[in-house]
Write a structure and sequence with these properties.
Helices cover 58% and strands 5% of the residues. β4 and β5 form a beta hairpin.
Length: 507
Amino acid sequence: MPSSPSTAPRFSLSSGWIAAAGGLIALAHAPPFFHRLDDSDEAIYASIAALVNQGGALYADGGVDNKPPGIFWVYAAIFRIFGTYQMTAIHVVALLVIATTCLLLYLAGRQVSKPRAGLLAAVLYGVLTAQGNPGLLAANAEAFMMLPLTASVLMMLRRQWLWAGALLVAAIAFKQVAAANLLLLPVALFLLEPEHTRLRAALMFAGGLSAGLLVGAAILELTSSLAGFWHWAVGSLYGQASLNWRPDQLWFRARYSLPYFLGGTAVVWVAALAFGSGWKRLRPNERVLVAWLPVSVVGAVAGGHLFYHYFIQVIGPLALLAGIAIDRWLEASARAQRPNFLSRRWIAGAIVVGVGVPSVAWGAYDLVADPLTYDVAPPVPQHAQVAAYIKANSRPEDRIFVWGDSPNLYVESDRLMASRFPGFLRGFARGSGLPPNNWDTAPDVWPELHTDLARNPPALIVDTAAAGWSDFAMYPMRNYPVLQDLVSTEYHLVAVVDGVAIYGRNR
């Protein structure tokens, strides 16, 4: 018989619940520890961080990418402590970042609702950030971004506006799309602050934001990276975004990610949207959390990539809203005088099936799939075999150059890049027939590449376009004079491994 209001069981956050939640989150994120790399993005961050630790300036001879510096600084710091290309250490830190973000979501849920709501939000975030292809579990910029971004929202709820602004800058330092949370500021000010204190609160937020930007700019300037950051991480974004928003490219990317994400999180979406639909009955801090969800959607889709790991930005508020909704459904069920379809068993069953089944399926897939190709059956590109050849036929101090978009070869062979570019046509619709006018094949790229290869002559040049890896067959080296002249005059073919042509120096 359902419990009466006076005898309804109360949830107590015991050490057992905390251990169970932590174990479940750790289990969900176990697959990354079975692979050295879980995504090509990890290889990009790692290969650039290795150059930074050699004394190179980020966005210059220390490596070029169009992301903010935070993720490269984190990788570089970890490599300094544990050794270059120590990816297990990277994965441990990434898991700690996920766990800390879960803790912040727990604190937000407890503040807005109750401890059980916070615990549910933490578990949902920990599980859903592992419910997808290997790229979702990787130590990517989005996962690191969510830690300060969630902290910023928590500071908003606590009306600590200075810290909210500063932490938002910390989030932007990992991914530009965190700036979407600026849209949340006017909502939070209107809902949480009395009219006579809103201006002061806004100025405090602006102060924290400005201070964070000044500190970041100072660090970039001190490391000789500010000009390069502005060129590569700010100036190059418009052209890339405009290309990504072509309807054909949106459809190409969306069909390989969006249906799986929405299908696997359908139950959580139902709970979150049901909670948000009661807007008029919600308290101000609850409305702020509801507003965070569409703001996060804007951030996740702003670049037009729609890659699976971009949805991490949405999972934070989604898990928080769902956790509060489920907690209140369970409480209402416990107080009910007669059985109904919202009984505790029905609610628990729906959550376990709706979240657990996709999580188990994705976990099994992520354990056996090649993280770089997503294939589970041969034939797959034998990148490990190519990396083994590179390692066996070069010295540890040698540098190599990889043509294509396969930065994993640098990490897997434990060799440094000979150039500042870990890959080419990154984020581009390779094989689409579009002119390869990407941000990393712009006219100013080739003089810098020529300078790099002259300063650090690669012991080996690895041509993955010859094998068609990463849809690169349409872009042979002969189409690019800098590479064609170098290979034809100073290098000769020494091996072909899995279709990949490898060139050694003539002398």
